[in-house]
């Protein structure tokens, strides 16, 4: 794969979409097992929002990987590893965020009946972790764009 330039607009749009999805999760209010079990509309919305956030992050990771490493990840988990290798995510966040891929896969592929107690527990964690993800990727993108725009290619 050939290297392409990092497109800050693509990343910004994806991060904004992640933020909107997280804010929608927050606006739903208290998400507990009972509510998810008894309100199929809320359960479907929460499932979709979790999947959307993970999908958007993977798309962002893939763009970063192609731009910085000239490589595309083979799967969702690897996309987070590649974003880490590119310098967009720190090790602590990498460790916290990778399990969200398993949650997304269980929901999308319906490997088993979705356990709403796990989903309810995962929502506040997802909000926290993906808020940190947005912050780290935005800072990485800004630094990368500044490096690329300096006359000698070095940070100003």
UniProtKB/TrEMBL annotation:
N-terminal signal peptide: none
InterPro entries, per the entry: HepT-like (IPR008201), HepT-like_sf (IPR037038), Type_VII_TA_RNase (IPR052379)
GO CC annotation, single: toxin-antitoxin complex
GO MF annotation terms: hydrolase activity; RNA nuclease activity
Keywords, alphabetical: Hydrolase, Nuclease, Toxin-antitoxin system
Annotated NCBIfam families: HepT_toxin
Similarity-based family: Belongs to the HepT RNase toxin family.
Name the record gives this protein: DUF86 domain-containing protein
Organism: Phytoactinopolyspora mesophila
Lineage: Bacteria, Bacillati, Actinomycetota, Actinomycetes, Jiangellales
């Amino acid at each position: 794969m050939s290297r392409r330039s990092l497109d800050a607009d693509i990343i910004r749009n994806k991060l904004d979409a992640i933020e909107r999805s997280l804010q929608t999760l927050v606006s739903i209010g208290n998400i507990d097992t009972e509510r998810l079990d008894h309100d199929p509309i809320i359960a479907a919305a929460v499932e979709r929002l979790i999947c959307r956030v993970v999908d958007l992050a993977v798309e962002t990771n893939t763009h970063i990987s192609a731009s910085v490493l000239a490589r595309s990840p083979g799967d969702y988990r690897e996309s987070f590893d590649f974003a880490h290798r590119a310098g967009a995510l720190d090790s602590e966040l990498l460790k916290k965020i990778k399990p969200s891929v398993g949650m997304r896969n269980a929901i999308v592929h319906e490997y088993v009946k979705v356990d709403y107690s796990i989903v309810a527990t995962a929502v506040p964690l997802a909000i926290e972790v993906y808020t940190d993800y947005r912050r780290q990727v935005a800072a990485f993108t800004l630094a990368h764009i500044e490096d690329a725009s300096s006359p000698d290619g070095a940070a100003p």
